[in-house]
Amino acid sequence: xxxxxxxxxxxxxxxxxxxxxxxxxxxxxxxxxxxxxxxxxxxxxxxxxxxxxxxxxxxxxxxxxxxxxxxxxxxxxxxxxxxxxxxxxxxxxxxxxxxxxxxxxxxxxxxxxxxxxxxxxxxxxxxxxxxxxxxxxxxxxxxxxxxxxxxxxxxxxxxxxxxxxxxxxxxxxxxxxxxxxxxxxxxxxxxxxxxxxxxxxxxxxxxxxxxxxxxxxxxxxxxxxxxxxxxxxxxxxxxxxxxxxxxxxxxxxxxxxxxxxxxxxxxxxxxxx
Amino acid sequence: xxxxxxxxxxxxxxxxxxxxxxxxxxxxxxxxxxxxxxxxxxxxxxxxxxxxxxxxxxxxxxxxxxxxxxxxxxxxxxxxxxxxxxxxxxxxxxxxxxxxxxxxxxxxxxxxxxxxxxxxxxxxxxxxxxxxxxxxxxxxxxxxxxxxxxxxxxxxxxxxxxxxxxxxxxxxxxxxxxxxxxxxxxxxxxxxxxxxxxxxxxxxxxxxxxxxxxxxxxxxxxxxxxxxxxxxxxxxxxxxxxxxxxxxxxxxxxxxxxxxxxxxxxxxxxxxx
Amino acid sequence: xxxxxxxxxxxxxxxxxxxxxxxxxxxxxxxxxxxxxxxxxxxxxxxxxxxxxxxxxxxxxxxxxxxxxxxxxxxxxxxxxxxxxxxxxxxxxxxxxxxxxxxxxxxxxxxxxxxxxxxxxxxxxxxxxxxxxxxxxxxxxxxxxxxxxxxxxxxxxxxxxxxxxxxxxxxxxxxxxxxxxxxxxxxxxxxxxxxxxxxxxxxxxxxxxxxxxxxxxxxxxxxxxxxxxxxxxxxxxxxxxxxxxxxxxxxxxxxxxxxxxxxxxxxxxxxxx
Amino acid sequence: xxxxxxxxxxxxxxxxxxxxxxxxxxxxxxxxxxxxxxxxxxxxxxxxxxxxxxxxxxxxxxxxxxxxxxxxxxxxxxxxxxxxxxxxxxxxxxxxxxxxxxxxxxxxxxxxxxxxxxxxxxxxxxxxxxxxxxxxxxxxxxxxxxxxxxxxxxxxxxxxxxxxxxxxxxxxxxxxxxxxxxxxxxxxxxxxxxxxxxxxxxxxxxxxxxxxxxxxxxxxxxxxxxxxxxxxxxxxxxxxxxxxxxxxxxxxxxxxxxxxxxxxxxxxxxxxx
Lengths: 273, 273, 273, 273
Fold this sequence. Notes:
homotetramer, alpha/beta, TIM Barrel, eight-stranded parallel beta sheet, two-stranded antiparallel sheet, about 15% strand, globular
C-alpha cells in the first residue's frame, strides 16, 4: 500500500467531524442525505424537499449530471443549482450537488453547502485539487473499480490541497454479478475505511443496488456495519423521473425507512457504551 | 434467467423451514452455526463445542477439507467426523460438515445432521445429485463467481433429486478488491434470494472477509439485511489453527457478538409487526 | 504464492510433451482439438468428424454435459461415448470428452484417449485425484474465477496422484464485461503459464468468447501469444445444436481458419530460430 | 445498449483514418506509438526518440502524469511538453501526450500532434467535450472498468463536440486476476470494437500486463486479433525510470519486437486478399 499521510488513522487521534451548514457527520454524528437524482424543475425539488425535511439532514439534487451518453438528459445546470438552493433554504436544509468541471467549481461552491465528486471523477486529479482549494466540504464517492487505498489517496489529494472536510461514500463496485443489481454494494468497505482512516463514511444504497426494493435491507445493513450516514435517492413520481427512477424511493417509503433506521441506530449505539 | 421450478418463490406459498436435528432455520427461525474451520483433534473440537454451546444452534467443523494445494492439511477424514459427532452429542448440538466426494456422501450423512456443499463444489452436479438423493438437510454455499441464478439452479439440482431441505449461504464473491479482504461479501444477495426463492439464506462473514476484525460489523449487517442465520468460524487458539486462523473469532468474542446480535434481531423483528 | 512442486518450470528441464493417441502436444508440437459441444446422435458426430479430420488432430464431443440447469439437455451419456469413440476410429483421430463424476472416471477412461476436467470442476479435488490415478492424459480447464496459481495447484493434484500427462486450457474468465462476450479470454495466461510451468497450454476461444464471429481473431491471437494448440467447437448446423450453437463454427469456416493458422504458426516458428 | 449515433459502424461506410502529423492510423494503416511513461529530462526523451525513430511512427511521453498518490512524481509539466516536442522534431516523429485538465487542453494541443485521454479520465465528460472542441486527434484509453459500450459513448462525446479524429485504445481491465499482471488485457475488445464502430483501435500491452516480459507475446496477439497499432512503453534504463519501469522495454528489445511484428502483419495482411 502506498503511504497515506493525511487521511490515515495515525494522522489524527480523533475522528474528523465534517460540518455541512449546521449538520455534523462523523465522530458519532449520523446524517441522512436525500433527494432526487436530478433537479428537474422548481416544483419537483421543492415538493421533495418538503416531503423529506423531517427525515433528512441534507438535501441532494443533481444540476450537472454525468451521463454515459451525450444524448441523455444532462441536468438543468445553473438553473437547477438555483432551484436546489432555494428549495433547501425554504425547508432549512443544507444542500449537496455534484460538480463535474474544474471551471464550475467556484460557481457551484458559491451556491451549495457541500460539493460531491462522482464515482466517474474519483481519479480526476485536476478536479480534486480544485475542490481541495476551496472551503466547502466534499463528498467523495468511490469509483466503481477503485480499491479502498485508491479512494483514500484521492481523498488525500483534497486534504493535501488544504481542505480537511471530506466524507467518503461507498456506492457499489462493478463485479461479474449484474443480473439483479447495477453494482455490488461492498459493505466491508465501511468498517475497513473507519479502521484505517479518520474520515466519516456514508453509504449510497440507491446506486449500490439500482433497485428501490433493495434499499431498505441495504440501508439497515449499512448502518449496522457502522456507517455515519446514508445517501438515498427520493422522488415523488419515480416512474416519471428523468434519471434513475427505478432506484428511487417515494417520500412516504423513505420516511418510514428512516423511522426504522432511527430505532436500529439507537440499539447499535447503546451497545457501544 | 433460466426457469427455476422448485426453488422459486412461486413454487411455494410459504418459506421453507429447514430442520437440522431439533433446530429450525427459515420462516422466521434464525440459527447460528459456529465452530472451527477444521476438526484438528478430539480435545480441540470438544473445547470449542463447550465454549459456544449456549451461543450457537449448530456446531460446525471440517473433517474433509478442500484445499487449493495438495500439500496443505487435508483434514482428519473419518476420525475427524467421529470427533465432531461426539463433541456435538456431548453439548447437545446438531453438527454440520462438508462433503467433497460422491463416494463419501453416505458415510458423512450417517455421521452428521447436515451436509455442507462448499463453494468450490457448487457446480459439481454429480455431488449435488448425490446429496439430493439422501435425507439429511444440505447447506449450499455460493461459488466465488456464481451468479444468484446459478446458485438457485444448483439448489434446484438438489430439490429435483428429492431433497427439499436446502439452506443457501452467501460467503463472499471474488472481485478486483483484494487488499483488505479475501472476498467481497455480497449482502444484496440476502434480500434478493429471499424475494425470488422460498429457501432460507444464511451468511458466512468469516470467509466473506477473511479477517476476524471485520466479522462483527459484517455479522450485524447480514442480520440487518434479513439473513436467517450466520456461519462463523470460532477457534480457541486462532494463532495455532491448522487452517483459516486469521478469520476465526475466539469463543469469548463470539459469545459477546451473539449477545449483541440477539438484541439487534429483537428490534428488527419488532418492526415487522 | 503457494509452492508448486511438480508443475513448476524448475521441476523439469524440458517442456512436458503430452501424448494423446498418436498426437503430441507441447515441446513445440501444436494440436488442434475440434468437434461439437455435445454428441447429439451417431450421424451428427460422424459427419463432423469427417468434415474436420484433415484440419484437427483430436476430436472432441460431450457425452456427459455439466449444465447450469437440471432441466437442460444433459448429454447422451454412455451412448454418446460410444458414438464419439466410433466416429474417432473411423477418421483415425483420438478423442477427448469431459468426465464429471468420480464414479464414471474408469468407464470414460476406457472409452476415450483423453479426459477433460471442465471449468466447473477445476477444484473438485476428489475428481482430480481420480483422474490422476488412471493412465489417460488429462485436459484441465481453468475455472471462470481461478487464478493461475490455483489452476497450477489443481494440475498439481493430478501430477501428485501419479499422472504427469496434463494439458492446461485457458477458456475465459468471468469479469464485469459481459455485453458482447460470455467470458473475457485472458491471453496473458498463455505466456505466464508457459514461463512458470512445463505443462502445455491450449486456448478455447469458443467458450472464451461465446460468439463464433470472434473465434477467428481470438484463435490467431492465442497462437501468436504462444499457445500449444486450440480447442474449437464445430457444428454442421449450429442453429440446431442442442448446446452452445452460437459459439460453434461451421466445418468449412473451421477448415479455412486452420489454413490461416498454419501459415501464421509457420512465421512465428521461423522467428524463434 | 444505448444508441451510438456517430461512432457506430452504420454511421460511416468506411473506416475512419486518423491523421497524426503525417502518420495515418486505421483503414489498413498500422501505427506503433512508443516512448517513455514520463518525460524525465531533455536528454532522456531525446535519447529514447533517437533509439526508436526507425521502429515507431509516433513518439509518446508523459508531461502531466495522473498518479494515484499526490506524493508520487507528477511529471515535468510544461517543461516536459517542450522537451517532448523538441525530441519529436529532431527525429521527425509526431508526438502524443496525456492531457488531464480542462484548463490545459489548449496549451497541450498547441504543443503536440495528438492528445491522450487516460483511463482514469475516460468518463470525465468536461474534458471530453474540451478535446472534442479542438482540432488535434485524440487517443482515448478504455477505463479499467469500462464496458465497450461506455468506451464508445465516451468517444461519442468527442465526435458530438466536433472532432471526428479519435483512436480507441484497449489497455487492460481490472479483474480478480492480479497476481502476475496489473490488469487483464481484453483482446476480444479489438474485433468487437472494429465490428461495431468505424474508429481505429490500438492496444497498450505495457499497461495491459505491467510486465515487460509479457509485452512481446501480447503485442503479437494484439496484432493477430486485428489491432491497428500498439502503444508500448520504452525506456533506456527501466531500473531508473521515475514511473512504470517494470513494464518498459529497452530500445533494442523494442526494435527487435517491431521487426517480428512487421513479418507477422505481412502474413496477416496477405490472408485478407
